[in-house]
């Protein structure tokens, strides 16, 4: 993998030059990982416009850094940001770009106190680079999605009245890890009955009951890549309104998936699916965006939402996750991860059926 990271750094260096800065200090964790291969809670990369990068981390990660970024000069240090800014100045940098989107005011003050450099926001340029995935990234994401779908398939037979939301969430989490996931991509949502009206409901001790719709939103984490999928199932034979809402959301999702193609405007993909729900009179019951990019972060560019700008491109993975939420009654959400492909026709990575499962 070092060659991949070196190629990414070469592209980032072009952006530093275009900005007219002498170097960029990359501090956002997923961006450091993307450019170096090192996963660390305390690492930063000083990347000069010309010349090799300098990776700093503390002693807890020294061996991992030597293993994952053998081609980079390494600095082992506890307080890395100030040290790297000072080092940049020592190497002749006068204007240092930094990632203002994640730098706190306090850290910025500490970073520049002794450094003697002028700082300028770099913008979300590495995040933009990260949007289009290479083949290896798509492979890792596909694995994360496969583990997630398999975990659901394995847990489905255990879903029955009496099982609590909390236990069901734990079963999914445990099974994903058992299948080979490094962990969960985010806190698993299990929302049953009326709780289904809360899009980001946190699981409770509420036992599942016959007649419930149960929404499960979960995903595996695999080598840094995040899966994200949602299925809503019925416990016992669903009522008419439950089937109607499910079919509506399923149709909105199909419409959204069809709109995902190279060159599609992010806002237009959202609008395509949203119109289906609006036409059924449920506009006010679908308030969140249609989807988002996934990769080294669970939510990353591009965001597919109302009024969002930017065009989809080949090899960009996104979620499509419409929902209808009826306060006091319940809700339905269906979510898949798909990849925009050059030939058109998105490739769906989460393979679980989108038909209503009656358990
Ligand atoms: Mn999602």
Written description of the protein model:
With 359 residues, the protein is α+β, with helices and mostly antiparallel strands. The protein folds into two domains: 128 residues, Creatine Amidinohydrolase, Chain A, domain 1 (3-Layer(aba) Sandwich), CATH 3.40.350; 217 residues, Creatinase/methionine aminopeptidase superfamily (Creatine Amidinohydrolase, Alpha-Beta Complex), CATH 3.90.230.10. The chain is 36% helix and 21% strand. It contains ten helices and 19 strands. Strands 4-3-2-1-5-6 form a six-stranded mixed sheet, with helices on both faces. The protein has a three-stranded antiparallel sheet with strand order 7-10-11. Strand 3, helix 3 and strand 4 form a beta-alpha-beta unit. Helix 4 crosses helix 5, helix 7 crosses helix 8 and helix 9 packs antiparallel against helix 10. The longest helix has 21 residues. The protein is elongated and about 70 Å long. The two termini are 44 Å apart. The relative contact order is 0.11. The model has no long low-confidence stretch (mean pLDDT 96). The structure holds manganese (II) ion. The site of manganese (II) ion (MN) has 4 residues, from loops. Manganese (II) ion (MN) binds next to loops.
